[in-house]
Design brief:
Helix 5 (108-125) packs across helix 12 (294-303) and helix 14 (339-355) runs parallel beside helix 16. 49% of the residues are buried. It contains 16 helices and 15 strands. By secondary structure, it is of the alpha/beta class. The chain folds into two domains: 15-53 and 338-435, Aspartate Aminotransferase, domain 1; 63-336, Aspartate Aminotransferase, domain 2 (3-Layer(aba) Sandwich), CATH 3.40.640.10. It has a seven-stranded mixed sheet with strand order 4-10-9-8-7-5-6, with helices on both faces. It has a four-stranded mixed sheet with strand order 1-2-3-13.
Length: 437
């Protein structure tokens, strides 16, 4: 295949490294990509944590074809189209009880920035406009908008933009602990007390000025950090005590990744707002969403005068017809094929296979929950990330796609994965690790 590579500035990519030896994916179906050199690549990452129902599923493709033949675009500012309302209704049937109000965006990054603005609008509508500060968490990833970077806690994502981030943001400590919780299977038993650090931040900043706390229920992009048992419930309790809203960034954990529709249901902790994207429409078209408690919507809408815009926010492509059609078909597919239950049923096999890698001396830690896992490697001196990159390349060359961040390998296969394919993924990883020095 002959293709010119110079013009594209690739996102989150070492451009020089990639263009010296490009890896191109030219087609996909179900659990596999086809590479530019004609090889079948087993997808161990659901694309980018997002193709939860598998690739190029016919019901989704057909829904998109039907829509593009019917309606290319319709504005959702002061107008609407039927499919966007249908998509909101189908989504609300899956969300935790009392969370029925859906605001569509085009990505997880947009969903986070929208949620932050929604929080500020809500507090102002209730007469508490002094609540303007946000609390995120170290190692949290909330997209690449300036709001998301501000509440996020990954240093590499922040350092070039630090002078221009939102004021009034602080961060909880992350929950990863090698001494007390390394190689935990599922939720670590140690660490729920770390949620009490929120009380310290509230005392420091004055709780009456804090608008919301935002966390990933399970942190994905930083290398799979599973919350300690009881940690999220404690955060919920503290937020309730002080009148703070709790935002769950479920861009990765949503749509069956943990074996339930959302992590909120898995952990039995209902937030005030959830941010969603990725699996919402199987990544067929860019789409994200914010889902809010009914009381938040009611407070904002009822505070505005008649015939006035209540929430001064939105995107040209919010609820685009093509994205909405894909979402409707995807949400139907999840239910008709029982994919969330399937993920729960496969989680034990996934856990056993990933933890079998512990025998390799290069492995520093293994973390897992549902159908998501991370294998952290000991870093080479002066070459952080080199080992994981080499393992990633080895797996790709041997027909398995994994993801790496720093020296952590991450796994999140489509929910249609079989037990045999899970075994195949981790066999390739074992072979890769055995080849490293």
């Amino acid at each position: 295949m002959s293709i010119h590579l110079d013009n594209l500035w690739m996102p989150f990519t070492a451009n020089k490294q990639f263009k010296a030896a490009p890896r191109l994916l030219v087609s996909a179906k179900d659990m596999h990509y086809t590479s530019h050199d004609g090889r079948q690549i087993l997808d161990g990452t659901a694309g980018l944590w997002c193709v939860n129902a598998g690739h190029r599923r016919e019901p989704i493709a057909q829904a998109m074809k039907d829509m593009i033949d019917t309606l290319d675009f319709a504005p959702t500012f002061q107008m609407g189209h039927p499919k966007v309302f249908e998509a909101a209704t189908k989504l609300a049937q899956m969300t935790p009880e009392g969370m029925d109000k859906v605001f569509f965006t085009n990505s997880g990054s947009e969903a986070v920035d929208s949620a932050l603005k929604m929080v500020l609008t809500y507090h102002r509508a209730r007469g508490e406009a002094q609540r303007t500060k946000f609390i995120g968490r170290e190692r949290g990833y909330h997209g690449v908008g300036f709001g998301g970077i501000s509440v996020g806690g990954i240093g590499g994502n922040r350092k070039h933009f630090s002078a221009n981030l939102m004021p009034g943001v602080d961060h909880l400590p992350h929950t990863l602990n090698y001494e007390h919780a390394a190689f935990s299977r599922g939720e670590p038993e140690w660490g729920a007390h770390l949620a009490d650090n929120l009380e310290n931040l509230l005392a420091l900043h004055d709780a009456s000025t804090i608008a919301a706390v935002i966390v990933e229920p399970l942190a994905g992009s930083t290398g799979v950090i599973v919350p300690p048992r009881g940690y999220l419930k404690r955060l919920r309790e503290i937020c309730d005590q002080h009148g703070l809203l709790l935002i769950f960034d479920e861009v990765i954990t949503g749509f069956g990744r943990l074996g339930t529709p959302f992590a909120a249901q898995y952990f039995n902790v209902t937030p005030d707002i959830m941010t969603l994207a990725k699996g919402l429409n199987n990544a067929a078209v860019p789409m994200g969403a914010v889902v809010a408690r009914n009381e938040i919507y009611d407070a904002v809408v009822n505070a505005a005068p008649e015939q006035a815009i209540e929430f001064f926010h939105g995107y040209t492509y919010s609820g685009h017809p093509l994205a909405a059609a894909a979402a409707c078909a995807t949400l139907d597919l999840y239910q008709s094929e029982g994919l969330f239950t399937r993920a729960a049923d496969l989680s034990a096999h996934f856990e056993n296979e990933i933890h079998a890698l512990r025998a390799n001396p290069l492995v520093k830690d293994i973390r897992n929950l549902g159908l998501v896992g991370g294998v952290e490697l000991h870093s080479r001196s002066g070459a952080v990330g080199a080992r994981a990159y080499e393992a990633f390349l080895h797996c790709y060359q041997n027909g398995v796609l994994v993801r790496y961040t720093g020296d952590i390998l991450a796994f999140s296969p489509p929910l249609i994965v079989s037990e045999a394919q899970i075994t195949e993924i981790f066999a390739a990883v074992k072979q890769a690790l055995d080849s490293l020095t």
